[in-house]
């Protein structure tokens, strides 16, 4: 990955999922399936950079690396691409799946809010969110008949109330669980009435969701909030707005990780390819 950028070369900075407590960017780890799919399908991209960021942990383990540790590591990765390899931010597609999608939103928010404060750093060309974990606060879990309960038996995540209790504690650490309810860097889709969040200044964004994943309600909330500030794209020329949304019916959480999840994987990678090739 250390080769200098060619003039106009596009690169994908991919932030892996794993609820902030597990998995990695290693080529043999599960998230690498997404990078391989993008390299296979996306004609305009020859390189995907998948950095490791420090993982969070909580009791009964040693308490390590709560928010904003992963954000600082993601920022360092972005800085490496721009400063060391000389990629223009206008040629960087920032991608994240699941918790990596949460982190990609946070990094974009930082680059928007502190534009120009860290050397030449400006927001990326585009933001690609794959089944993003957008509501760490779990505020969507109590919606009657909502996806967090309806799809527990069929989705790979199971009950988010149970499976994400530890990651929530690990990520928030000394900030306390209330930080997940009202901090826009942690839960941009939280339904808490005290959350103040907007997406003004964000680049064009493509949000991917599985129609049968437990996160789909919170992902739709994220979509609606982004569309409110950025407009809904028409999927062809993006003239009507910056946000495009693709929901694969019956697909599970983070389905691009699973080669067997066809035809959804191929269909989605094809629409991502079309979207990346659109002019900014």
Summarize the structure.
The protein is α/β, with parallel strands linked by helices and 280 residues long. Helix content is 32%, strand content 12%.
What is the name of the CATH architecture? 3-Layer(aba) Sandwich
Overall tally of domains:
1
Distance between the termini: 25 Å
Can you tell me the residue ranges where pLDDT is under 50 for at least 5 consecutive residues? none
What pattern of helices and strands is seen along the backbone? Answer: EHEHEHEHHHHEHEH
As a percent range, the share of strand residues is: 5-15%
Topology (elements, then pairings):
Layout: E1 10-15, H1 32-41, E2 45-49, H2 69-84, E3 92-97, H3 99-113, E4 126-130, H4 147-150, H5 160-163, H6 165-172, H7 179-182, E5 204-210, H8 216-230, E6 243-248, H9 264-277
Describe this structure in words.
The chain is α/β, with parallel strands linked by helices and 280 residues long. The chain has one domain: 3-Layer(aba) Sandwich (Rossmann fold), CATH 3.40.50. The chain has helices at residues 32-41, 69-84, 99-113, 147-150, 160-163, 165-172, 179-182, 216-230, 264-277, and strands at 10-15, 45-49, 92-97, 126-130, 204-210, 243-248. Strands 2-1-3-4-5-6 form a six-stranded parallel β-sheet, sandwiched between helices. Strand 5 (204-210), helix 8 and strand 6 form a beta-alpha-beta unit. The chain is globular and about 50 Å long. The model has no long low-confidence stretch (mean pLDDT 94).
Characteristics of this structure?
alpha/beta; 6-stranded parallel sheet; 280 residues; 12% strand; single chain; Rossmann fold
């Amino acid at each position: 990955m250390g080769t200098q950028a060619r003039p106009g070369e596009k690169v994908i900075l991919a932030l892996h999922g794993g609820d902030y407590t597990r998995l990695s960017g290693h080529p043999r780890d599960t998230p690498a399936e997404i990078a391989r799919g993008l390299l296979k399908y996306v004609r305009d991209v020859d390189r995907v950079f998948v950095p490791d960021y420090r993982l969070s942990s909580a009791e009964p383990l040693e308490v390590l690396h709560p928010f904003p540790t992963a954000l600082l590591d993601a920022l360092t990765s972005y800085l490496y691409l721009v400063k060391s390899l000389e990629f223009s931010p206008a040629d960087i597609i920032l991608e994240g799946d699941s918790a990596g999608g949460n982190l990609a939103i946070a990094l974009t928010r930082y680059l928007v809010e502190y534009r120009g404060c860290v050397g030449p750093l400006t927001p990326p060309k585009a933001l690609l969110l794959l089944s993003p974990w957008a509501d760490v606060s779990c505020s969507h879990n109590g919606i009657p008949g909502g996806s967090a309960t309806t799809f527990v038996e069929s989705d790979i995540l199971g009950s988010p109330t149970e499976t994400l209790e530890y990651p929530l504690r690990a990520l928030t650490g000394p900030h306390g669980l209330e930080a997940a309810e009202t901090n826009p860097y942690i839960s941009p889709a939280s339904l808490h009435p005290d959350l103040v969040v907007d997406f003004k200044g964000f680049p064009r964004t493509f949000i991917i969701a599985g129609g049968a994943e437990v996160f789909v309600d919170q992902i739709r909330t994220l979509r609606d909030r982004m569309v409110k500030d950025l407009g809904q794209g028409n999927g062809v020329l993006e003239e009507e707005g910056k946000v495009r949304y693709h929901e694969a019916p019956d697909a599970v959480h983070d389905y691009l990780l699973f080669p067997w999840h066809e035809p959804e994987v191929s269909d989605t990678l094809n629409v991502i390819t079309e979207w990346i090739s659109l002019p900014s």
